[in-house]
Design goal:
The chain is mainly alpha-helical. It folds into two domains: 143 residues, no CATH class; 53 residues. The protein has twelve helices and no strands.
């Protein structure tokens, strides 16, 4: 009886190990496929290879998640700006909406333009997380998030330069909004409860 139980446990352990190794192999294959697509998109984005050449080499690319029109769209994607990732994501999402990209295509296009710290953050995500645009965006923005004091200093030190008054007002408003949003994240709720009560009296 004991021997049968040990044998059953061993068989179950081996079955679980086999399932785990198959899943690991599937994930590695998917990651390699995504990396290959990213490299192809990077080559097209840099202008080193024409989109139709890559599609001729691998016709399955157009029939899968990336269509030939999406490869051409890579040229439309704005450059990632580490100084202002919020504006980049705003522009990127407008483009994705206008072009009708799915969530996974948006994530794939996004990874092709990420640089610096954002690229490091993306590479630290798992395969499944890297395919979800919202997860990638949240992780990248969190990496660039500043403390409230930094946003306050940006707001206070914002200069007009050669911008029109309207552009300056819009930029100043954006900086103020970012300051307030981070302030609300960092301040304890008890402060707002006390502050709210003193305002009412």
């Amino acid at each position: 009886m004991k021997l049968e139980t040990e044998r059953e446990v061993e068989v179950e352990r081996l079955r679980q190990e086999k399932l785990l190794s198959v899943e690991r192999l599937r994930q590695e294959t998917e990651q390699a496929r995504i990396e290959l697509q990213r490299q192809k998109l990077a080559l097209i984005g840099d202008g080193k290879v024409a989109a139709d050449v890559l599609l001729a080499d691998n016709p399955s690319v157009s029939s899968r998640s990336m269509g030939s029109d999406n490869l051409g769209d890579l040229k439309l994607v704005p450059k990632f700006d580490e100084r202002d990732p919020e504006t980049f994501f705003s522009l990127f999402e407008r483009l994705a909406e206008m072009r009708g990209w799915s969530d996974s295509v948006s994530a794939l296009m996004l990874q092709c333009v990420l640089t610096g710290r954002a690229q490091e953050v993306f590479s630290s995500l798992s395969n499944s997380e890297g395919l979800r645009y919202a997860t990638v965006k949240t992780a990248v923005l969190k990496a660039y998030e500043l403390v409230p004091e930094a946003y306050r200093q940006r707001f206070r030190g914002w200069k007009r330069g050669d911008k029109s008054h309207l552009e300056f007002a819009r930029d100043l408003s954006t900086q103020f909004d970012r300051y307030i949003v981070t302030l609300l994240k960092y301040w304890p709720k008890s402060y707002f409860q006390v502050f709210g009560k003193t305002q009412k009296t």
